[in-house]
Amino acid sequence: MTKAIVKKLLSIILTLFFVSVLIFLVFQIIPGNPAEIILGTEADPAQIKALERELGLDKSMFQRYISWIGGLLRLDMGESLKYRMPVSTLFLRKLPVTLTLTLYSLILSIIIAIPLSIQITLKSDKWYSSIITAITQLGISIPSFWLAFLLIYVFAVKLDIFDTLSYNAMAGGFLQRLKSFFLPSLAIAIPNISTIIRYMQAAILDEINKDYVRTARMKGMTLKEILYKHVLKNALIPVITVIGMSLTSSVGGSLIIENVFALPGIGSLIVASISSRDFPLIQSVVIAVAFLVIFINFIIDIAYGLIDPRIRGGK
């Protein structure tokens, strides 16, 4: 197990290196001069050149990359060109909104998907089982941002239950903040719910066909008793990977959904930095998000190996 962890850590380092190079190169080819954007189109060329030297934009691409990656290794994310303050400060201010949205969407996914998966299995001959299966297929196919607009139209415009632009971290209590996150969390959760249901239903059906279930049925246990006492525990093991995938997709989905619902998180910060060509901010925030996603996958892999003895023994 220790050897497997070391291999994964080395893989993470290599992955982050290639991601950093890709992120840096992508943002270098985006048209627009940050110095001109900061000073304005009417600025004197000499002023623009002086600001380029101050910001390090007159250096070669390789020098800028080495300077940037060296700062990251020292936990220095650089300074924002637009806000003229440390990127780490901006990132930490916005991070709680993104993490809260991600966490709420994951909780919604789990508390809805697992009971539905069980009910579909227990009532496989019922008409609503087919309807839920069709809905899950639809949920997988529809993009989160389209679901977001649909939820806004139904629950905010038509029914007037939610005010989607009322988020204020300091206003109201816990329930008010929870209400602000409900629709965006649901928009992210629906595709994840559909995916978890599909995988968990398959895992439960696979367990039900095993010998220990047939033996338990012969001893007089009902399918419901077997499901809760034996099957569910075994079926959840492969589903952990899917839940981990849902967590990482929730992080990515939150970056998009934040802009739809005007939530002041990392996603809104990225959009604002792109429009102003704030390269230090964009690069550092994107690499931080990439690290967060890779780290989550690492934790899920380790947890999966600890939970499933067969994997731990194989490694």
From TrEMBL:
Protein name in the entry: Binding-protein-dependent transport systems inner membrane component
Pfam families the UniProt entry points to: BPD_transp_1 (PF00528), BPD_transp_1_N (PF19300)
UniProt keyword terms in alphabetical order: Cell membrane, Membrane, Transmembrane, Transmembrane helix, Transport
Q: Which family does it belong to?
A: Belongs to the binding-protein-dependent transport system permease family.
Classify the main location.
membrane
Q: Which InterPro entries match?
A: BPD_transp_1_N (IPR045621), MetI-like (IPR000515), MetI-like_sf (IPR035906)
Location(s), subcellular: Cell membrane
Q: Which CDD domains match?
A: TM_PBP2 (cd06261)
Q: Where does the source fall among the domains of life?
A: Bacteria
- Which is one Gene Ontology cellular component term of this protein? plasma membrane
Q: Is Membrane a UniProt keyword of this protein?
A: yes
Q: Which organism is it from?
A: Anaerococcus prevotii (strain ATCC 9321 / DSM 20548 / JCM 6508 / NCTC 11806 / PC1)
* Gene Ontology biological-process annotations: transmembrane transport
Task: Extract the PANTHER family matched here.
Answer: DIPEPTIDE TRANSPORT SYSTEM PERMEASE PROTEIN DPPB-RELATED
Bilayer-crossing residues are 9-30, 95-118, 130-156, 181-205, 226-247, 286-307
Q: How does it sit in the membrane?
A: Multi-pass membrane protein
Query: Locate the ABC transmembrane type-1 domain: which residues?
Result: 95-304
